[in-house]
Amino acid sequence: MSASVPADHETTQHRFVPEQSMHKPTTAFVQRKARYRLSPLGLAIVGLISSATSHAQSEGSADSLPSVNVTAQGPRQPRASIAGLGDGPAWQQPVQAQSFGEATLRNAQATRLADLTKLDASTTDSYNTVGYWDYLTIRGFTLDNAYNYRREGLPINAETRLPLDNKASVELLKGTSGMQAGVSAPGGLVNLVVKRPDARVRTATMSVDDAGDMLASVDLSERTGDRQEWGVRLNAATERLATHVDNTKGHRQLLALAVDRRINTAHTIEAEFEHSYMSQPSVPGFSLLGGQLPSAHDVDPNLNLNNQPWTEPVQFEGNTGTVRLRSDWGQGWRSTVTFGEQRLKSNDRAAFPLGGCTYGVKGLYVYCANGDFDLYDYRSDDELRLTRSLLAQLQGNVQTGSIKHELGMSVLRSVHRTAMSTQAYNYVGTGNLADPYAPQPSDPTPTYFVASRHEQSTEWMLQDAMALSAQWQAWLGARYTQLHRESVPTGGMEPSVADDRTLATPWLAVAYTFAPQTRAYASWGEGVELKSAPYGSFLNNPGQILATKKSRQLELGVKGQYSIDKASQQWGVNWFHINRPEADSINSSYVWDGESTHQGLEGYWQGRLGAWSLAGSAMLLDAERHQSAQDFINGKSPVNVPKHTAKLSGAYTWSGTLPVTLQADLVHEGSRWVDPENTIRLHDWTRVDLALRATQALSGQSITWRLGVMNLLDNQAWRESPNPFGAIYLFPMAQRTVTLSAQIDF
Could you tell me the CATH number of the domain that includes residue 526? Predict the structure, then answer.
């Protein structure tokens, strides 16, 4: 499993010059510190809630509240609320999406967002490692952690570890998402749906694995009041973090509370808050050895090169909450007003191996042929991130002649702030894979300048879903965004930069129902690409904001649904074509540099037949760079993008006094290129996970036992090969891990 170096690719000794902050791929999101300025929005939502309360009181206390009917979140559904297309069944919606409920995540042994890569074929890794935040790639495009993530439909910053303990489901919307978000990279959106008060929930969970990781959590919910008008839900978790990888012991905690108040038949107020904390050393990747791809069988997957006497853990602290007012105005009209705020604090530290030698025309940093690597003392303490949003939505129905219109209107006001300090990013010595833990001196001196950011945006959206006939339906939509951005470097060596833009992103789709619960559709949409030259990378245009560019997607698909007796199925097949402008450093300037075109076929099928439940998805992807000033990458595939993927899950349940379910998950990812010139390629790999669960009834209570084995066959392979911060990295598949858990419902 190695590749020789072509004659025109030389391996040279090279000392690394830092280009940007550790762990963080090149982005332009780091901008100027600013005051919190959304107090008028806070006053507005308080006014709305007060108005609704007054309205409820004016109706009199005699109003009877309807009975509370709670519908459990489906374990796996090919739809997502973040799509903004209403509550219709998946087969009617002209988009591709997936929603994974709590049961699906538990049964698949998914504990972090990175684990979604085993559940959906279009989703793969992009620098996912122990002890750090998660990166996801959808349809070959890495999602931007500053723009492509939502929580309760509101923008959040995913440059942290996002807990799943208090989440009812995780949604994936695939494709260019300019309709749902004014600024977002193509690939899609991820939305976290928070657990809300239910009629009655009493659940405690404990788990342990053979690496020493131990988790304890509780989930409690209750409704109270004469008419069940009050609801409360509490989630708490504590975990001792451990993996088979050396020096990765840590800990995390979560405390989350959600409440709601049904004021009357028309108005409901919901509020929720979560506090999370995590501390754990991170694990950097391996790399090429000069111009050779080392065999994954020759590398210890438990080796952690971030293992110096002065190594400190990465720490993430988050406080996030929302307040929402839901109103039903009658005649099919309803509104929702949601206010949310997320405050993050991070300490990002590592003894980080990078470079030593370079490879290829771009001179990407790799380890040297003899195993040497340069080691850096990286520390970025007290990183502060704020996201604050107010979203007002109105939906209703209008009839014009024979055409029924489902109208959706919204306005979203957001503030994003990131406050950074000068970082330490200092070369401290040369290490070698033969003696990886040899002590090196530390150097925590903060000398590396980065930038802080401040963004304000107002987004107006209008959408019309038109029922043209019994078979035909069409959608027209547009989002208009007013955006203000500022950035200033921490060291004051470069001038601050400010920019104001207005952006419009249209979307349209048409669908035809040609058989019962079977529909073909076509859609087209745009997304917005914003790029800025990073600071600290010795460019001659640091901080410059590039002209706005558009990404575009065309998608054609067929979707269907079938259900009779004990058999049910949902399925879909689609083709997509995405063009995205790319930016890169050319002749010491950060500029737009051609495009990437990703086109592919996706398919999914999920269903149940008696005691069997099955789910599967697959993707064939053709990705290519073109029109670049760097001729050596034109016509080549982007790095770390597999040519094909397949994710399968099957379960069989034996009924009886003690129901037992056996579940098997297969994850297969095809070959991918390691370098931009496409000279070295990772082989495809396959992983099998196995899980056994049994539900034991005890005096009105129940215990669900789960025994899970990740990487059952203990395969050794290179899982992914990202190229962040001018380097080539290789991440191995984790070794076989056995987990035992007990979920007690009382």
Answer: 2.40.170.20
